Amino acid sequence: MNLVNEWGFVGLFMAIGWIFPTLPLVISWFVRPRKKNDIKVSTYECGVETVGDTWVQFKVQYYIYGLIFLVFDVEMVLLFPWALAYSSLDFFAFGAGLLFIFLLADGLYYAWKTDALVWK
Hints:
Elements: H1 2-31, H2 38-41, H3 60-84, H4 91-113
Helix pairs in contact: 3-4
């Protein structure tokens, strides 16, 4: 009987998890305005109308900086718990952490040698 009650809570949370996202969608479908005009059915793009040439070439290097930052940001998130549990780690957990650090250092070395970190 106790197992049924525990699964009942799981079912209740799953039902609530379906109701909360769908309820605003259903309500908005009922209360939306029904009149269509040219502006409402046109494709929306944010910003103002462009003047002049809109084809501007962006440097790919900006995205590479962002990706490198993201990699090392995720590295810090994963290495802080590993460093806090350093004294209680067994050999394999310590080796996995060192392998992770080595792979990230190898990626940094590759980015450095291909001049991906040089601001041009």
